[in-house]
Design brief:
alpha+beta; 9-stranded antiparallel sheet; 11 strands
Length: 390
């Protein structure tokens, strides 16, 4: 029996002929590791797809968990647009409030869309902003200067002490929404509004050297007549890759409960852990079954995890990525054996202090680890959080 201070989730996913995550030149993302170039999927890409996935385990299907939105245009589209559509306010007043809110929410670059960085705001925060903007517009319906002064007064003047964001934190549960509680956020206009991520996600990489192919394709013009040039109307190429990816996620359980419940992290064991347990259960399903991917229409890059290992314990987490520092064969059996052997070495050196469960398609032997199906594994992880012991 141990305290689940950290949950560590290791997964192997296999994809054929896909372009899962592209760089700025349109090629698959890569990284060198152990003397061989591997195909890579960025953590940002993985988190984005888990955030927006729509199925029975979507994070937004969790009751009592407010959603969030990341955009450069929250003020225009979510705060001011409903007030504009309601009518009755002079246009120069709406523009003055819109401009002031953009600057105070997004910082000094907020006057133009290109100057703003996308910001994650929870729906409670968006609702709060809209309520305050509507009040200011109603109080100064024909006085643009007065409206701007009131908007400025709503926000604190001293850097890092925005009265608005402080009000968010004091008035709303999950002010940054569920996404902010899981993956954190940075607010340049108010560092005190930053949220530390409770779910830490590594870049996934192939356990073997990259497997890449340039795919040449042509497009046929359906209206082309027989007396025209029989050549293709368009030719092009794109990169396709195949790979068996190792992914690694750490859930800081006290941090997650603190972000969800508003308590101090050190008080997590006495806090309500039911919401955190549901989040962990959903997250385990999303990690196992949601695929990242560009070119979905032409590659259908959908795959479930071949293996998922979850560990619960109170020691500092450690990745099992070094099991693949020497490239493995591009086969699930070989990768599973490498992972199991590396874990056994760590157990022999540091002791086996974590409680574990594993789901795998192929026969596998993970030291001291019962084999479960995904539902049972996700439920077990959730219960360790709910009960505070594993």
């Amino acid at each position: 029996m141990t305290t689940p201070r950290f949950l560590q989730i290791h997964a192997l996913h296999s994809y054929p002929a896909a372009l899962l995550n592209r760089d700025d030149s349109g090629l698959a993302k890569r990284m060198p590791f152990g003397g061989a170039v591997r195909t890579r999927i960025s953590s940002q890409c993985l988190k984005r797809h888990w955030r927006v996935a729509e199925d029975e385990y979507a994070i937004h299907n969790i009751p009592d968990a407010a959603a969030a939105i990341r955009s450069r245009n929250i003020v225009e589209q979510k705060v001011m647009q409903p007030i504009r559509e309601a009518g009755g306010i002079a246009e120069d007043v709406l523009d003055a409030v819109n401009s002031a809110f953009n600057v105070h929410v997004y910082g000094s670059g907020g006057t133009s869309e290109s100057g703003r960085q996308p910001l994650l705001l929870g729906f409670p925060e968006v609702g709060y902003l809209q309520e305050k903007a509507a009040e200011i517009c109603a109080a100064h319906a024909d006085d643009a200067a007065g409206a701007k002064a009131s908007a400025d007064a709503l926000f604190g003047k001293r850097q890092g002490e925005s009265a608005n964001f402080r009000a968010f934190r004091e008035s709303a549960r999950l002010p940054g929404g569920l996404e902010g509680a899981l993956f954190g956020r940075m607010v340049t206009s108010d560092p005190a509004a930053n949220i530390d991520a409770a779910v830490h996600v590594a870049h996934a990489f192939t356990v073997h050297p990259e497997e890449s192919e340039s795919d040449y394709f042509s497009v046929v013009d359906d209206l082309q007549t027989e007396d025209e040039d029989p050549g293709a109307a368009h030719i092009g190429d794109m990169e396709l890759t195949a790979g068996l990816f190792y992914g690694y996620v750490v859930v800081d359980v006290p941090g997650l409960i603190s972000n969800l419940e508003g308590c101090k992290a050190e008080d997590w064991e006495s806090a309500d852990r039911s919401l955190a347990a549901r989040v962990v259960e959903h997250l385990a399903h999303l990690i196992a079954t949601v695929s990242p991917g560009a070119k979905r229409g032409s590659t259908a890059p959908y795959a479930y995890a071949d293996l998922m290992l979850i560990e619960a314990g109170k020691r500092q987490p450690r990745s099992l990525a070094n099991a693949f520092r020497k490239p493995a064969k591009a086969q699930v059996e070989d990768a599973t054996e490498r992972l199991s052997c590396h874990l056994e070495k760590l157990d022999n050196a540091y002791g086996a202090a974590e409680t574990r469960g594993v789901m795998c398609l192929e026969d596998c032997e993970i030291p001291g680890t019962p084999r479960l199906n995904l539902d049972a594994l996700a439920s077990w992880a959730a219960e360790t959080v709910r009960n505070g012991e594993a």
